[in-house]
Amino acid sequence: MFRFEAVIGDFPVLLLGIPLTLGLTFAAFVVGTVAALPIAVVRIARIPVVSQVALAWIEFFRTTPPLMHIVWAYYALPVVADIKLDAFTVVTGALACSTSAQMAEIFRGGILAVPRGQWDASQVLGLAHWQRLWWVVLPQTLRLILAPSCNTLVSLLKQSSLAAVIALPEIMNRGWILASETFRPIEVLTLVAFIYFVLTWPLVLLSAALERQSSLAFRSD
Amino acid sequence: MAEPLVVIDRVVKRYGAETVLDRVSLEVRTGQVMVVIGPSGSGKSTLLRCLARLEPIQKGRILIDGVLSAKGTEDEGPAPDKTGGHDIGMVFQSFNLFPHLTVMENITLAPRRVRGMAAAEAETQAIELLRRVGLEDKRDVHPARLSGGQQQRAAIARALAMRPRIMLFDEVTSALDPELVGEVLKTMRGLAEQGMTMLVVTHEMGFARDVADDVVFMDRGAIVERAPPDRIFSQPAEARTRAFLERLLEREGGTRRER
Ligand SMILES: Nc1ncnc2c1ncn2[C@@H]1O[C@H](COP(=O)(O)OP(=O)(O)O)[C@@H](O)[C@H]1O
Ligand SMILES: [Mg+2]
Known about the structure:
The structure holds 2 protein chains of 2 kinds.
Chain A: H1 11-15, H2 18-45, H3 50-63, H4 66-81, H5 87-113, H6 116-124, H7 129-159, H8 171-182, H9 185-216
Chain B: E1 6-15, E2 18-28, E3 33-37, H1 44-51, E4 59-64, E5 67-71, E6 88-91, H2 103-113, H3 119-132, H4 148-160, E7 166-170, H5 178-193, E8 197-201, H6 205-211, E9 214-219, E10 222-227, H7 229-234, H8 239-252
Parallel strand pairs in B: 3-8, 3-9, 6-7, 7-8
Antiparallel strand pairs in B: 1-2, 1-4, 4-5, 9-10
Helix pairs in contact in B: 2-3, 2-4, 3-4, 4-5
The complex binds adenosine-5'-diphosphate and magnesium ion.
Residues 15, 20, 38, 40-46 of chain B line the site of adenosine-5'-diphosphate.
């Protein structure tokens, strides 16, 4: 019943989507993570209004699906606000927003996990608040959050397939088109899944290794 | 006589409804070593933390060398000048060394980032300090590779790198294996001999006897008694002090060593 030989010749067409998939993933991860740090810091700081805005941002993007953000930004924004963005920007932006919410929570957990004595010691030494954060707390936070960040990257790579709905020719979109052209959706989508597996598996292994390492090697005082 | 280096004036510190320091007043002169003793929960750590500006106080004031260092948040009057300086060094029971930095980097971080000292100068100073605490061969090691006693001496060197005029020690030997206590106390004795003004919370009665100019007994957030060590140990004026010292000696019992 399955006839992979009917679609295997088109496999390279799917592979051509890899750069775009990786590009979307990488761009969204970098933008999202860079944005996440100030969001997390502000959220912890309990500054009136600003901290609430940060919290609202986090909760909104953690509780609503990125597919909705993509569709909304791509189809509604031009009508409502006369803002027309290209598909790559829309997907990158939408995924970066949810990544920023997720990573902000990861950063927050990592910052709060650094013992209070580290803040105390650096404060008595005269370091300003941002210096304590930058030179003492964040380097320790980074080691703690490597594994969960890696997990975020894995789910982001899979979520980049949402770009298919607005016709960005990444892996999933190419799979859909190929499936309708060949009338072999099961075979094609199996190949698509295989490509995602090959891309994410090393990251999953890396995440597990990081988790093992951080639970073993790194202890503060 | 010259004005005291440290003036703690009727300081009140509360956590929520609990009053942890109840109008505590204490003066320490330049070069004096003050040992603070008292039962657990009596407010010793809190007193040091308020001095180090780690905790705000609700009432009273703290002066360092005549300059306002902290003032009650519930009191009127101008706030202290925050740029006041880094005149206080503190050493903690749990060391609190920065685990991601080498011993050298632990010591040079604040001089470089706070004082803007050049790297070479900060390192020269750090090497001198490491010699003083007997760790000159550990400069490039991370704290996790040091024994507790070595970590604590590194923490002392780190605090000294900011050239404080007052050093606060909060039960700095309590987390150490017994055989490592001596090396840390020796470093502290050395500091005292060089004229450092020190406030030391400790249960090391040998240290108090030999090094302290005065011993302060605290109980339930108040200073009960202050006297030179020979007097407070032989004939405490207050019943509470006597009861505490008796319990302490009993507990130390057979394990007492002369240090
Ligand atoms: N951060 C805090 N929040 C609430 N209560 C505290 C805090 N730190 C200390 N306390 C309370 O203050 C009292 C004095 O504590 P502390 O100064 O640590 O005593 P000591 O060092 O003499 O053992 C204790 O009752 C303790 O529970
Ligand atoms: Mg204490």
